[in-house]
Specification:
By secondary structure, the protein is α/β, with parallel strands linked by helices. The protein has helices at about 20-25, 25-30, 40-60, 75-90, 105-115, 135-140, 160-170, 245-260, 265-280, 310-315, 340, 345-350, 365-390, and strands spanning about 5, 70, 95-100, 120-125, 145-150, 175-180, 200, 215, 285-290, 300-305, 320, 325, 355. Bound molecules: pyridoxal-5'-phosphate.
């Protein structure tokens, strides 16, 4: 087999942890029952497994198990939260607040709601990627029904001050939703301490399977009302019909359990690799760190590089390292990243950016190799630019 590039794109997805796969396997062939089958043992087995998984996930965010609604991932959870609240509360108000740097799975449902007559305020961010809490508070109106602010950004890794945002929302009696796809299992989440009312989760960013996630929906103080977006058999308290995917649910819980168990040591490991990479890259002139220097995910490093062409840079690196660029990571778009332009970057600088997503299985040796190649590629591209501008071919 061809030698594959070093994988540093853990914000896109992560390899599954072997322990997660091991936990899942019996639920494909042996314990294959439908968790809704209440008349026989096969159903009870599946139900018991999903119940245990629900308890693990609930404990991870300090909620109760009944408040966990399984979905196909964070995209669906975000859709359910945002459209579900809009539909349930539109007679109270039609104003929603979110942030310019959110994932498309938040921005697009919001845009859709605009087309239905809702009004959305897209908060700008400061140069470090954090929102301005005073501005948030000033933007809340009597008809605001929801504030949606992500926990950790998928491009620049910035961690928003959820507890402070939650306190503001609670004071104004506005529901608070957070897309925590990049946060669960990596940083502490506490729905009580942070006054969170809705939280979107997914498994495949934390070494779990793709195609499973959850929405936390608060049931008391206040009880959140939600309109289902998928109707059918009435699973998940009627909020998300469809047969529960037992193996994925078991794997999701296992992934979260491992993430929380290992959080301290894993953070140390990722910080070492992140710091090493940054210390090496920042020896070059004109390399900028995007996002807050330490209020960020330990596995994230996002840099913009002056004097190089973004696509040439990616091309030069693609045999060495799998990373993503500063262009939007949606399937169809080649526009510069809306997150980097929200930080105030020019289009050219936004294009000439690299997002390194370092994960559990990366090693210091890999980071050193990547740093070396990146530096060499940047230097040769800059040299070529200088030569070209002097007319040397
Ligand atoms: C990956 C990601 C999503 C989408 O999650 P899926 O489970 O793939 O649907 C949503 N929001 C953020 C912040 C993400 O990083």
């Amino acid at each position: 087999m061809l030698v594959r590039p070093i994988y540093l794109d853990c914000h896109a997805t992560t390899p599954m942890d072997q322990r997660v796969l091991d936990a899942m396997l019996p639920y494909f062939t042996q314990y294959f029952g439908n968790a809704s089958s209440i008349t026989h043992q096969y159903g009870w087995e599946a139900e018991a497994a999903t119940k245990k998984a629900r308890e693990i996930l609930a404990e991870a965010i300090h909620s109760s198990p009944e408040e966990i609604i399984f979905t196909s991932g964070a995209t669906e959870a975000n859709n359910l939260a945002i459209k579900g609240v809009a539909e349930a509360y539109f007679s109270k108000g039609r104003h929603i607040i979110t942030v310019q740097t959110e994932h498309r799975a938040v921005l697009d449902p919001c845009q859709y709601l605009e087309s239905l007559g809702f009004e959305i305020s897209y908060l700008p961010v400061q140069a470090d990627g954090l929102i301005d809490l005073n501005l948030l508070e000033k933007t809340i109106r009597p008809d605001t029904i929801l504030v949606s602010v992500m926990a950790a950004n998928n491009e620049i890794g910035v961690i928003q001050p959820l507890a402070e945002i939650g306190a503001i929302c609670r004071r104004h009696e506005v529901l608070f939703h957070s897309d925590a796809a990049q946060a669960i299992g990596k940083i502490p989440l506490d729905v009580e301490q942070m006054n969170l009312d809705l939280v979107s989760l997914t498994a495949h960013k934390i070494y779990g399977p793709k195609g499973i996630g959850a929405l936390y929906v608060r049931r008391r103080h206040p009880r959140v009302r939600l309109a289902a977006q998928i109707q059918g058999g009435g699973q998940e308290r009627g909020l998300r019909s469809g047969t529960l995917v037992t193996p994925n649910i078991v794997g999701f819980a296992k992934a979260v359990e491992i993430g929380i168990e290992q959080m301290l040591e894993e953070t140390q490991h990722l910080l070492l690799l992140q710091t090493t990479l940054w210390n090496k890259l920042s020896q070059l002139e004109g390399v900028h760190l995007n996002g807050h220097p330490n209020q960020r995910l330990p596995g994230n490093l996002n840099v913009s590089i002056e004097g190089v062409n973004g696509s040439a840079l990616l091309l030069g690196l693609q045999s060495v390292v799998a990373v993503s660029s500063g262009s939007a990571c949606s399937t169809t778009s080649t526009a510069p990243s809306h997150v980097l332009t929200a930080l105030g970057h020019s289009e050219a600088l936004a294009y000439a950016s690299l997002r390194f997503g370092i994960g559990r299985f990366n090693t210091l040796d890999e980071i050193e190799q990547v740093a070396e190649s990146a530096i060499a590629t940047i230097q040769s591209l800059r040299q070529a630019n200088v030569s070209a501008s002097l007319g040397i071919t």
